[in-house]
């Protein structure tokens, strides 16, 4: 991915040169105390307004930064403040409990927000897959997923009232000694908080070898994990992953579904 142009650095008052950051989708760059990403549009503008000055007990956020003329983006790029913290040890169950607790604290701070309009109009892979998980959209799934999806639907019951939630917490909570967890790269959805927590448990089961007892230890309903697994498998199906990847993920989703009783 190309580094941020000089005009973008000047717009945000960032010193150069920028250096690439590991993790995520490989599109983030650090310049001084700023992190720059190729990101703009209605979702980003909304996040800028919501996260600007947001605080609460039990979490930190990567605060959005305006350009010198007050905009949330410039030439398709955005900026946030650098936050101290490192990715946690994903082999430890306590890590996942900490991620879920950070998400709960963050969601409490968002509970007053009204539904943003884009949550009903987005058409990216993730948004479509989310609607599939909630039976709001019917699309043909890859044949490798049809059986496990049917079993998961049998467990995917109601989860309570919706609000704005971050539905990609698993790799987006950083930890630092003596500081609350830092929530980064917010992916906003209008769903019950338990669903976002279910995504964390589903990811832990599928990709990090966590035991089925994690859901109970975290107080996350089985129905939330079932919907989250539907969300993840529908995303894989929607984005047209290669056959070998689909087969591997189908195996992981099947084992996770069996772990929660589907």
UniProtKB/TrEMBL annotation:
What protein name is recorded for this chain?
A: Aminoglycoside phosphotransferase
Lineage, top-rank taxon, reads Bacteria
Q: Which InterPro entries match?
A: Kinase-like_dom_sf
């Amino acid at each position: 991915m190309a580094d941020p142009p000089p005009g973008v650095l000047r717009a945000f008052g960032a010193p150069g040169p920028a250096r690439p950051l590991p993790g995520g989708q490989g599109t983030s760059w650090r310049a001084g105390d700023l992190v720059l990403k190729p990101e703009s549009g209605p979702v980003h503008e909304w996040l800028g307004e919501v996260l600007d000055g947001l605080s609460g007990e039990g979490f930190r956020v990567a605060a959005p930064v305006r350009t010198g003329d007050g905009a949330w983006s410039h030439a398709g790029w955005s900026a946030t403040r650098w936050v101290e913290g490192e990715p946690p040890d994903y082999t430890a169950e306590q890590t996942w409990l900490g991620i879920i607790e950070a998400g709960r604290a963050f969601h409490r701070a968002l509970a007053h927000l009204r539904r943003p309009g884009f949550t009903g109009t987005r058409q990216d892979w993730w948004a479509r897959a989310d609607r599939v998980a909630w039976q709001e959209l019917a699309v043909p799934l890859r044949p490798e997923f049809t059986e496990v999806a049917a079993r998961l639907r049998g467990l995917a019951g109601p989860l309570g009232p919706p609000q704005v939630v971050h539905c990609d917490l698993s790799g987006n909570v950083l930890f630092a000694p003596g500081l609350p967890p830092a929530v980064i790269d917010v992916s906003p959805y209008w769903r019950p908080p338990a669903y976002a927590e279910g995504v964390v448990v589903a990811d832990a089961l599928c990709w990090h070898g966590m035991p089925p007892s994690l859901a109970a230890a975290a107080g996350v309903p089985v129905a939330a994990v079932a919907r989250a697994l539907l969300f993840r498998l529908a995303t894989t199906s929607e984005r047209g992953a290669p056959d070998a990847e689909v087969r591997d993920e189908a195996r992981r989703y099947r084992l996770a579904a069996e772990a929660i009783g589907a």
